[in-house]
Amino acid sequence: MDKNPFKHMRDMLVAKPVPKVDVKHKVMAAIRAKESKEEKVVKKKIGLLVTVGMLVGASSVWAGVEMIQLKNEKGEVVLKLKQMSMQEQQQKMQQLPPDIKDQIKNRNAEIFKQLDTGEQIVNGLKPGEAVAIYWPLTKLQLESNPNSTPFVDVRSKPFTYTTWKDMEQKVGHLFKVPAEMGTDFKFVASEAIYLPSDKYDEKAMKEEQERTKKEYVVQPIPLSDKLRDAEIEYKGQKGSAFLEVSILGDNNKSGGTLAENLEKVMIGDNEAVYSTFAPENGDTVHSLDWVKNGTKVNYNLRAKMSVSTKEELLKMAEQINQAQ
What we know:
This protein is of the alpha+beta class and about 325 residues long. Helix content is about 30%, strand content about 35%.
């Protein structure tokens, strides 16, 4: 499942064709590990609040509590990570009349149905294939936003690997990671997601939908040569650690996290953000976010605290930075 559905959700709410995206936003940085029943519940709960923020005019989609800036060895800001709060959206939701609450909940359910449909379509693709999915205007969409336009959702199927040796052939020119790290964590699975191109024919899809009355229309499109991100699982005796890698664009990267605690730490001479997130029913997750000095490579390393200590996580990050 796509580890960040909220980018798609925001695009659906404004209902404009998807632009090219450099790297994905980190709305759920602390809990993007393997899909679980609990994570689905959390995502839908937060998704509802995203919908509230977009539809009823919260001052921002997320109210920022704290921000940490990371600098490289030259003193340049390379990463801004903001601690986010759902309080503004929760207050907005409580103040709404019952009929508006129902409207927002129904629109939110429609959005997640479209997201789930997109996932099902991607599951049927071969690795490296990409599609554009045309969604015509719906009654709920127009009720929520009378100025809406049809939404075109672009998706791609990740390339998957079980060894770093195989993955390195595809992404090794962009970044390096170790095959093993920590005391017993070994590379066991990974995926590399490349951005779809924007070369789709919206007019043709619209005409087909109007002619056939299909719920949606799918059009194959080329895959770009631009990496969106890569996700790697390392498995040890106590459980798994997950490493996400992305390449920064020319501008400073900004992201958000729902972590309860943010702390600036050092990985050798590299600035990093250490954060913790405690799900309502689950083990606390901790993570490290950093941009490797001298590069534009952004790493996010995370694991449950029952799997690794803070010190072990920092040691693994050092090993990642030292990978050749």
